[in-house]
């Protein structure tokens, strides 16, 4: 990644001896939600001698020669019993090919394999970044050597094992567009799965307020509904837009792959995040990396935005306050918004660049007791 490598040049020479087992839900470069894991694995492969990946589902991938991928079989229709069988077969059979374990979000894998990994002398790191604290997360924390998270609020168990490493954004891929499209309405975009926790009602209602004040904007909501309950929520949102008389102002673009979303972000004037998760949303950082101003109510961003916090944050579920913030952003000149976007990108490059992110994770194993 060009000049970014110099920041971790010396540590990388030391950490290339690492052989890593990564456990994650999905390896599929085209996936709309988890496509980023493909880039993460590529970067781990650049900084470790060997990488073995065990995923629930394997789709399209193009990974370096020092990466091997095994699937638990979801893409083949495997049962839960088969998942468990495949899990223990792989972590035992491949025990000689890895010395460290990195579990992404699915703390259940630490609960299942933690004792065996400890007996085998493997260092275990769990990545967890979410506001919720399930009971099993406590057990996973006890079994892990390190718990890595994006912000202080991303992991809410008091533990000396907690290490804040930021997020992993490929800032060479997510970058500002060289040119914007021609004249158009002031465009808003919101990206994330269609789920109640994303709280899209707030931005829909904010657009309705702006419409009533003759403020001309266009909102695109990008994301899919993967579960039955989410399908019901998606239908309710469409009905809400219709009832507000906004079908020509608000559009639902459906899911888009992680590789395709960059142009959508680059061409937006403003990214709006109404999520209630309390954890650092990657989509917000991807927008910032593309030089796009953002507005958010997510408390995790307080730790990220620094001097821009007051300007770019609004109260949770406060559509009127969000409408005011959108209007303020629209009134800025293009050059003012561009300058703001450049400052936001600098934050991501400095604190959440993928190369540095992976280096921090690898470094954490060396300090784990």
Description:
With 369 residues, the protein is α/β, with parallel strands linked by helices. Helix content is 41%, strand content 17%. It folds into 2 domains: 2-168 and 353-366, Rossmann fold (3-Layer(aba) Sandwich), CATH 3.40.50.2000; 186-350, Rossmann fold, CATH 3.40.50.2000. The strands form 2 sheets. The chain has a 7-stranded parallel beta sheet with strand order 3-2-1-4-5-6-7, with helices on both faces. Helix 4 packs parallel to helix 5, helix 6 crosses helix 12 and helix 9 (282-289) packs across helix 13 (334-351). The radius of gyration is 21 Å and the shape is globular.
- Label the overall shape: globular
Number of strands: 12
* Helical coverage, percent range: 40-55%
- Stated plainly, the CATH topology of the largest domain is called Rossmann fold
Helix/strand/pairing category: alpha/beta
In CATH, the homologous superfamily of the largest domain goes by the name Glycogen Phosphorylase B
CATH class of the largest domain: Alpha Beta
Element order: H for helix, E for strand:
HEHEEHEHEHEEEHEHEHEHEHHHHH
- Average pLDDT, rounded to a whole number, is 92
When the domains are counted, the total is 2
Low-pLDDT segments, ≥5 res: 1-16
Instruction: Describe the largest sheet.
Output: 7 strands, parallel
Q: How many distinct helices?
A: 14
Q: Report Rg.
A: 21 Å
DSSP strand content = 15-25%
Largest sheet, order of strands side by side?
Answer: 3-2-1-4-5-6-7
* Termini separation: 32 Å
CATH architecture of the largest domain: 3-Layer(aba) Sandwich
């Amino acid at each position: 990644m060009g000049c970014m490598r110099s920041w971790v040049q010396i540590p990388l020479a030391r950490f290339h001896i690492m052989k890593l087992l990564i456990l994650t839900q999905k390896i599929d470069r085209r996936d709309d939600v988890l496509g980023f894991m493909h880039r993460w694995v590529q970067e781990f492969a650049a900084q470790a001698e060997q990488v073995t990946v065990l995923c629930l589902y394997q789709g399209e991938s193009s990974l370096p020669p020092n990466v091997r991928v095994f699937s638990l079989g979801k893409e083949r229709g495997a049962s839960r019993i088969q998942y468990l069988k495949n899990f223990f077969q792989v972590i035992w059979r491949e025990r000689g090919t890895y010395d460290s374990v990195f579990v992404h979000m699915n703390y259940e894998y630490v609960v299942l394999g933690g004792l065996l990994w400890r007996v085998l002398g493997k260092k275990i790191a769990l990545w967890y970044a979410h506001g919720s604290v399930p009971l099993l997360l406590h057990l996973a924390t006890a079994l892990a050597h390190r718990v890595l998270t994006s912000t202080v609020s991303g992991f809410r168990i008091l533990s000396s094992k907690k290490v804040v490493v930021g997020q992993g954004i490929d800032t060479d891929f997510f970058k500002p567009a060289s040119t914007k499209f021609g004249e158009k309405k002031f465009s808003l975009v919101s990206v994330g799965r269609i789920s109640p926790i994303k709280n899209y009602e707030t931005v829909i209602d904010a657009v309705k307020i702006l419409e009533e004040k003759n403020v001309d904007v266009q909102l695109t909501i990008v994301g899919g509904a993967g579960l039955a309950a989410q399908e019901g929520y998606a239908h309710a949102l469409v009905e809400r837009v219709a009832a507000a008389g906004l079908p020509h102002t608000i559009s639902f673009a459906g899911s888009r792959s992680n590789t395709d979303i960059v142009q959508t972000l680059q061409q937006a004037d403003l990214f709006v995040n109404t999520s209630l998760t309390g954890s650092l949303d990657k989509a917000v950082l991807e927008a910032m990396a593309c030089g796009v101003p953002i507005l958010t109510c997510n408390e995790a961003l307080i730790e990220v935005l620094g001097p821009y916090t007051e300007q770019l944050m609004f109260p949770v579920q406060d559509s009127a306050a969000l409408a005011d913030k959108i209007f303020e952003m629209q009134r800025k000149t293009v050059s003012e918004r561009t300058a703001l976007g450049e400052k936001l990108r600098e934050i991501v490059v400095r604190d959440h660049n993928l190369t540095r992110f992976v280096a921090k994770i690898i470094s954490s194993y060396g300090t784990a007791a």
